Amino acid sequence: ELRQAEEQRARHLEEHGLELALRDAEGGDLREWTLRLLTRAIDGGCELGRELRAHGVDAVELEVWIPDAFPVRPPQLRVLRPRFRPGSFFVFQHGALCLETLTAQGWTPAMSLPQLGVQVKTVMSQGRGSVAGGGSMGDPGPAGRDAARATFSTIESSHSDWNAFSVG
Fold first, then answer.
1. What is the residue-level pLDDT of the chain in tens, covering all 168 positions?
2. Alpha-carbon span 112 to 114, nearest angstrom
3. Residue 53 falls within a domain, yes or no?
4. Is 97 within the bounds of a domain?
5. What pLDDT was estimated at residue 168?
6. What's the confidence (pLDDT) of residue 12?
7. What is the rounded CA–CA span in Å between residue 139 and residue 117?
8. 3-state secondary structure of 126
9. Which of 90, 113, 132, 164 has the greatest number of C-beta atoms within 10 Å?
10. What is the H or E stretch that residue 39 is in?
11. Is residue 167 part of a domain?
12. b/e for 55-84, b at 16 or more Cβ within 10 A?
């Protein structure tokens, strides 16, 4: 499934304004991906589209981390850039996203990475908030990933209804 997503990249770019690519261009590491939601494909009438354009941001860049239990467990996502004000468009500290789709209850193994990208774009486009600038949401390396995971765990635990079902 992961290799298939890489092969369908051009189609998703054209249809949805999504760029999904392995971070390791050689294809040796299938765990770490980059997802870009291109501003030109985000409705200019929604607050997210207006904010991105006002700040000259060409894309929302996210890191997608594939856990060992994928696709039974959801991938872990975090926004790398631009910088959003906390809570804006469902983005929190360290780029953690507050989306039920990323929880054990909300995730379905039938969802592909490109479908997840469309879902993230749709939900963020329905949100409110502001862009704080074109910079990064935090450390782009493993320490930033761990900080985003910790923030997401806090978010998830505050939504007890998201924990109604548990996978393995």
1. 666 665 677 778 888 999 998 888 887 889 999 999 999 999 999 999 999 999 999 999 999 999 999 999 999 999 999 999 999 999 999 999 999 999 988 899 999 999 999 999 999 999 999 999 988 998 888 899 999 999 988 888 877 665 444 443
2. 5
3. yes
4. yes
5. 39
6. 80
7. 22
8. helix
9. 113
10. none
11. no
12. eebebbbbbbbbeeebbebbbbbbbbbbbb
What CATH number corresponds to the domain at position 27?
A: 3.10.110.10
Q: Can you tell me the distance from the alpha carbon of 150 to that of 7, in angstroms, rounded to the nearest whole number?
A: 32
User: Domain for residue 144, yes or no?
Assistant: yes
> Residue 153 is part of which domain span?
2-159
Calpha distance 34→161 (Å, rounded): 30
Task: Find out whether 2 and 30 touch, Cβ atoms under 8 Å.
Answer: yes
DSSP annotation string for 45-111: TSHHHHHHHHTT--EEEEEEE--TTTTTSPPEEEEEESEE-TTGGGB-GGGBB--GGGSTTT--TT-
CA distance 10 to 53: 24
Q: Where would I find the beta strands (DSSP E) of 101-166? A: 131-133
Q: Which of 28, 27, 15, 24 is nearest to 63 (CA)?
A: 24
What is the number of domains present in the chain? Answer: 1
Task: Determine the pLDDT at residue 2.
Answer: 60
| Token representation of residue 82 | 């631009």
